[in-house]
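User: Could you check the structure of this?
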Amino acid sequence: MLTRAMNFTAALFSPSILLIADLLAGGVLGLAVWRVHWRRLPPAAMNAWLGATVLTMVMWMVRGGYLPGLNYHLLGATVLTLMMGPWLALLALALVMLVSTAYGLGDWQAAGLSFLISVVPPVTLSAVALKLTERFLPPNLFVYILGNGFLAGGASFFVSGACGVLALALAGAYPSDLLFFEALPFYFLLSWSEAFTSGLLTAILVVYRPHWMATFDDVRYLNDKSDD
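Assistant: Sure, the predicted structure tokens are below.
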């Protein structure tokens, strides 16, 4: 689940931008809480999701840095989206970000902006990719793994990086040449690692723990007719 994540520093942005970002992030989280069907969550799957969230918290502690605001670490947006669905994935990653910030790896004042840039774009892209493959591609196991795990994982990595670079450019935090010609290609290269890791984890979970994958339907992807 290797992907880059923006842990922005509040000093790079104006207070008004940070306030707007906090309000938007709060709205997204409120919508996520409202959209999750809490009473329908299967207990076994919920335990798996909680375990995945804790594991993601641990993975967030392993990180590297390019410049302040241009960091990369384990995020897990694509795999968590496939496991939980987009709304629960947003909440899980918000909890991960909360713990990471409390641990001293983030800036509280920029937490809303970091959430909007690091979490919302990859989760949204992963959810949209799933819908598109379900609508336009054959219901095939390899389509699910390669399309939603491998390709969506890599694309979500790069889109998240592009959003962060653009935000820093608009804020004037760094020279545009540095951001677009040095930082952005760096994240493009890292996106292939994210693609491979997300695809591999998706394949393992589908084979050994398909009931943990809320978005995986064995009847659809495996043409299971045993109940007919």
